[in-house]
Automatic annotation (TrEMBL):
Keywords: Alkaloid metabolism, FAD, Flavoprotein, Glycoprotein, Oxidoreductase, Signal. Residues 53-228 form the FAD-binding PCMH-type domain. It comes from the Eukaryota. Coiled coil: none annotated. It comes from Erythranthe guttata (Yellow monkey flower). Belongs to the oxygen-dependent FAD-linked oxidoreductase family. This is FAD-binding PCMH-type domain-containing protein. Pathway: Alkaloid biosynthesis. One of its GO terms (molecular function) is oxidoreductase activity. Its cofactor is FAD.
């Protein structure tokens, strides 16, 4: 930290302390770099080094109450500092904890994490600092058949996940998390709090897929819960190249978005060394949730995907909450493990996404395998997440999340590595960029669509000051298609001075 940062740091601390003391709030939730807790609070899910090493926050603040968040906004504005809001800290580019631009403070909402369920109304108010695991755990305490449709990783935070989309194993039946939001509480740059009625439908539309980060600080979401059967069925069937994986993956593309919507067959692809040949082989894992019992699932699979050769012993019946543990790789663990909110990562990671509207031909798939073999075993992974089902029944403009009818599946690309240093990072990131280049022929075009929750700064980046509509469109149209224009209009209305901004926030036309 340079001397001006030290200056800012001190001024912010003083301002916030005065504000908190005037409302009789404790001041021990403010962590500066000299505090031992600061380093552990800074650890996030994704370590992302690179040639442009991002800045760390001047301070991390973990408020308990709304008025404390308001105080942080007040001081940030007064001192010209940026705020980065963090709920679960899983941003793919670390934008909730780091910045490439101006001095900033982190407001970490981990202490706002109450989940209030109304079983009669089948709704829940969920504060943004709750994790998905905590939400699922609270639901399981209430009932075996009350559930929610959102992502697979239990440590993901509600604030970023719901506001940016939220795809999970029930999305073909119950859509994404954002589609099930029915109310919200949002604080604006003046510290005022709005609910759905007082914020108006434009802002309420924007925070259901357009990301909260550009528009204000979301404090809580009210969601419609979903009903699941007492018994669901899961399986994870794997096939290597020698076991016909390529043909199966090819065939999967013709059924994945069309099968019964109670069935979600997700596909994970990695490269491993074959124990039989000693050569590298692709391993395809068909990881599946069926909302029903095995005796309904088997005839369905026989009819819709007989090539997989699924048999009863591949399948396990369980409750929905047990399936949450299964897909998180936590099977047979006590339910309370879902309450662990952090598993700070020790590996470095880069992710990207694509949408597929036409099946990829066999030779196209074989080209992907060649890329996977270039990386170390198990370190690179592609996920193919099927769409269709109820996701197709929404129009592209119903929420900012535009990936609806016409998409067969979404691709998630991920690569991990262990060693520090720019050289190592460059090696893996450039591998991914080459793969992404290769994939251009096989994925959506004009725009080449991407999923906002798999944030990717390669798609484009804002200026450190103001950014024009044209410049931001480069990445904005990819995430939001034609909804980007409306997001810019909403932003211009609710945050004209562009107080809430980051490297990929929606620009305000007044400030450009
Ligand atoms: P974080 O706190 O980092 O926030 C992400 C962004 O939202 C930041 O820009 C932040 O400023 C902003 N933000 C956060 N809280 C806010 C608030 N209250 N108000 C306003 N802005 C706020 N996705 C998916 O759809 N399905 C899945 O299964 C998974 N699985 C998964 C696993 C793992 C290991 C990771 C790292 C990520 C995923 N994701 C995912 C992606 C995930 O949905 C995405 O990273 C979310 O934005 C994470 O939300 P957090 O609150 O945890 O992140």
């Amino acid at each position: 930290f340079g001397s001006s940062s030290t200056h800012n740091n001190h001024d912010f601390l003083e301002c916030l302390t005065v504000q908190l003391q005037s409302s009789n709030s404790a001041t021990d939730a403010i962590y500066s770099p000299s505090n031992a807790t600061y380093a552990s609070l800074l650890l996030t899910q994704n370590l992302r080094p690179g040639s442009t090493t991002p800045n760390k926050p001047l301070l991390i603040f973990t408020p308990f109450y709304d008025h404390e968040i308001r105080a942080a906004i007040h001081c940030s504005k007064k001192l010209g500092l940026q705020i980065r809001v963090r709920s679960g800290g899983h941003d793919y580019e670390g934008l909730s904890s780091t910045s490439r631009n101006n001095p900033f403070v982190v407001v970490d909402l981990r202490n706002l994490r109450t989940v209030t369920i109304s079983a009669d109304e089948k709704t829940a108010w969920v504060q943004v600092g709750a994790t998905l695991g905590q939400l699922y755990h609270t639901l399981a305490q209430k009932s075996r058949t009350l559930a929610f449709t959102a992502g697979v990783c239990p440590t993901v935070g509600v604030g970023g996940h719901f506001s940016g989309g939220g795809y999970g194993m029930m999305s073909r039946k119950h859509a994404i998390a954002a589609d099930n939001v029915v109310d919200a509480k949002v604080m604006n740059a003046d510290g005022k709090i709005f609910d759905r009625r007082s914020m108006g439908e434009d802002l309420f539309w924007a925070i259901r897929g357009g990301g909260g980060t550009s528009f204000g600080i979301v404090l809580a979401f009210k969601v419609n819960l979903v009903t699941v059967p007492e018994t669901v069925t899961v399986f994870n069937v794997t096939r290597t190249s020698e076991q016909n994986a390529t043909q199966l993956v090819h065939r999967w593309q013709y059924i994945a978005d069309k099968v019964d919507e109670n069935l979600l067959l997700r596909l994970f692809l990695r490269s491993v060394t074959s124990p039989v040949t000693g050569n590298r082989t692709v391993i395809a894992s068909f990881t599946t949730l069926y909302l029903g019992g095995v005796h309904d699932l088997l005839p369905l699979m026989k009819q819709q995907f007989p090539e997989l050769g699924l048999v009863e012993k591949d399948c396990t019946e369980m409750s929905w909450i047990e399936s949450i543990l299964f897909f998180a790789g936590l099977q047979n663990q006590p339910l309370d493990i879902l309450l662990n909110r952090t598993t700070p990562s020790t590996v470095f990671f880069k992710g990207k996404s694509d949408y597929v509207t036409e099946p990829i031909p066999v030779d196209g798939l074989q080209g992907i395998w060649r890329f996977l073999h270039e990386e170390a075993e198990n370190r690179a992974e592609l996920q193919f997440s099927p769409y269709g089902g109820v996701l197709s029944s929404f129009s592209e403009s119903e929420t900012p999340f535009p990936h609806r009818s016409g998409n067969i599946f979404m691709i998630h690309y991920g690569v991990m590595w262990d060693s520090q240093g720019n050289q190592e990072a460059e090696k893996h990131v450039s591998w991914m960029r080459r793969l992404y280049g290769y994939m251009a022929a096989y994925v959506s075009k004009s725009p080449r669509a991407a999923y906002f929750n798999y944030r990717d700064l390669d798609l484009g980046i804002n200026n450190s000051g103001n950014t024009s509509y044209e410049q931001a469109s480069v990445w904005g149209l990819k995430y939001f298609k034609n909804n980007f224009k409306r997001l810019v209009r909403v932003k211009t209305k609710v945050d004209p001075t562009n107080f809430f901004r980051n490297e990929q926030s929606v620009p305000s036309l007044y400030s450009s």
